[in-house]
Design goal:
With about 290 residues, this protein is mainly alpha-helical. It has 14 helices and seven strands. The protein is elongated.
Length: about 290
């Protein structure tokens, strides 16, 4: 109890916000200083909101309310509160608990790792949706659907696989690079292992395989634009192998201008990739159907 804060509240003539009480236990979840201020003013009635949830849920409600206004909890108190909520609500996501306790998500993640016992296979997010803690199964489903329905949009694949469109885009990108659809999990911490660097030989195999598939698609090779795309891709691939030949062909006095030109081209390619991925994530509407 902070006596000075009680005196400040007791001097306010306007109606203060209602307190929150836990009906089963009668505990004040939020507003204990307002209660003491009302007693100081010799009042016997005070507006209140009644909460009738479980004791564990009531504790989480109290923490959330007391990190948002008035005399907020200290960081040490918030960490202790987060640890307790992790024990009573292990199914809540790190982000959800962080929002309740007023902490960073990374802080909650670290303290979750220290908890004994088995880990839950799914988590409840702040939006109420249940998501698996290991997205490997969803990524594998997405990769199979991408193979079966190569022309489907990322949103269609995402709905069928039960994952997000961004996950589908990442799976598509990983497959195009010759990698597994899901990152490998390393150690007991369960964190994805960073992919290794792609060497020149790997890059050559990946681009050659993709070009073969590109040239075999009738929707591309049987029209002028498609054939131009194939010629364009092949010309750029040939410039990559071997890159040392290209470097040797540039005189010293042209090194800086060509380097700037290469960086400009790289920005163009990144923008092209971004536009294609956005088109997959949000395809343009098709032609209007017949009136109903």
């Amino acid at each position: 109890m902070n006596t000075e804060h009680v005196q400040i509240l007791a001097g306010i003539t306007e109606e203060l916000p209602p307190i929150v009480i836990h009906e089963p236990s009668g505990r004040v979840l939020d507003g204990i200083h307002r209660v003491r201020a009302a007693l100081t003013q010799e009042r016997n009635r005070i507006p209140a909101i009644v909460y009738s949830g479980s004791d564990d849920d009531a504790f989480a409600v109290a923490v959330r309310l007391n990190t948002a206004h008035g005399l907020p909890l200290t960081r040490a108190e918030r960490i202790v509160a987060a640890e307790r909520i992790l024990g009573t609500h292990p199914q809540w996501s790190n982000r959800m608990i962080a929002g309740v306790a007023g902490l960073a998500e990374s802080t909650v993640r670290v303290h979750r790792r220290d908890l004994p016992g088995p880990r839950s296979l799914s988590r409840v997010g702040r939006d109420g949706r249940v998501r698996p803690t290991d997205a490997t199964d969803g990524r594998l489903r997405a990769s199979r659907l991408l193979a079966e329905r190569p022309t489907a949009s990322a949103r269609e694949i995402a709905r069928a696989a039960g994952v997000s469109p961004n996950t589908v885009l990442d799976v598509r990108r990983r497959l195009a690079e010759g990698r597994e659809p899901a990152p490998a999990r390393s150690g007991s911490a369960g964190t994805p292992a960073p992919p290794g660097p792609i060497g020149p030989s790997d890059l050559e195999k990946i681009t050659e395989a993709m070009l073969v598939d590109l040239m075999a698609d009738p929707s591309i090779r049987l029209n002028d634009r498609g054939r131009f795309l194939i010629r364009w891709m092949r010309a750029n691939r040939e410039a990559l192998n071997p890159p040392s030949d290209v470097v040797c062909a540039v005189p010293d006095h042209w090194s800086v201008p060509v380097a700037r030109l290469a960086r400009a081209y790289s920005l163009f390619w990144q923008d092209l990739a971004r536009q294609l991925e956005l088109r997959l994530a949000d395809p343009p509407p098709g032609p209007p159907g017949p009136p109903r």
